[in-house]
Specification:
- This protein has two domains: about 5-105, 2-Layer Sandwich (60s Ribosomal Protein L30, Chain: A); about 120-265, SPOUT methyltransferase, trefoil knot domain (Alpha/beta knot), CATH 3.40.1280.10.
- The protein is about 35% helix and about 20% strand.
- It has ten helices and twelve strands.
- The longest helix is centred in the C-terminal third of the chain and has 22 residues, at about 245-265.
- The chain is elongated, with a radius of gyration of 21 Å.
């Protein structure tokens, strides 16, 4: 920081505070403004890597603690706030010491002329599930995520927290027409369903493919499932009837990853 004064907000009724509160709760507002809110040092550091920070909000008493963040921003981007303001915009149970308003990365259009792996999600509702699936996809080497209409917003603060900001590094396609995806995708498409007869461990996943998973309670819709020719399942020799959606997605992603690694080693 230099000698220029830093803006201070002490009122919970400040326009920026109200804007942040609305961004936290209103997905349509987030989409229209192309903004989101991130909580905590790690998420802020991830957002900084992609130059997404608009404002960093923290108490004056925390300036020294977060000097490594502050020194990377201009004075106009730093706002000192009261504890009352932080409490108003904190949607989590844990104590909040720093928060940032960020720009959402530029949205992308699906290019079906390109060869790519993809995780396709239909009507996913739980923020924690989506966040974990995004992290699993990234860890497993899949960079493309297609989300149907009515999926939970990828920039919901709880999704951001569960994913630890990994979506900043992914190609995320929101509000996709999945019927069009099935028609136009050039690779193999596999519907993950508990009722399939083919085990994922017997299916060749070494070529470009899309893994399709459905809603937590109902799975893939009958309409979409009828358009996908290849159905696979995760065998469960134990007594559990099903896996949590995020667990199932992680198993599928890492089976794909395992086959690719094994295939490379054989060459």
């Amino acid at each position: 920081m230099n000698g220029i004064d830093i803006k201070t907000i002490v009122s919970k009724d400040n326009a920026l505070v109200k804007r942040i509160a609305r961004l936290n709760s209103d997905s349509k507002f987030r989409a229209s403004q192309r903004e989101a809110v991130v909580y905590g040092e790690h998420l802020i550091i991830e957002a900084m890597k992609y130059s997404l920070i608009e404002y960093l909000l923290l108490e004056e008493s925390s300036l020294a603690r977060y000097s490594h963040l502050v020194e990377k921003l201009s004075n106009e981007q730093i706002i000192l706030v009261s504890a009352e303001v932080l409490n108003k915009i904190n949607i989590f149970d844990s104590e909040l010491s720093v928060v940032a308003l960020i720009k959402q990365p530029v949205s992308r259009e699906l290019d079906f002329s390109q060869q790519f792996d993809c995780v396709v999600l239909e009507h996913i509702q739980d923020p924690g599930n989506l966040g974990v699936i995004l992290r699993a996809a990234s860890a497993g080497g899949i960079k493309n995520i297609a989300l149907s209409k009515n999926c939970v917003d990828v920039y919901n603060p709880k999704v951001l927290r569960a994913s630890q900001g990994i979506q900043f590094a992914l190609n995320i396609y929101s509000n996709c027409d999945l019927d069009e995806f099935v028609r136009c995708y050039s690779g193999q498409i596999y519907a993950l369903t508990p009722h399939a007869s083919v085990s994922i461990y017997e299916q060749d996943l070494t070529q470009n493919c899309a893994l399709v998973l459905g809603n937590e309670g109902n799975g893939i819709s009958d309409k979409l499932l009828s358009k996908i020719k290849q159905h696979i399942t995760i065998p469960m020799p134990g007594k559990a009837e099903s896996l949590n959606l995020a667990m199932a997605a992680t198993v599928a992603i890492f089976e794909l990853s395992r086959q690719r690694i094994t295939n490379i080693r054989k060459k």
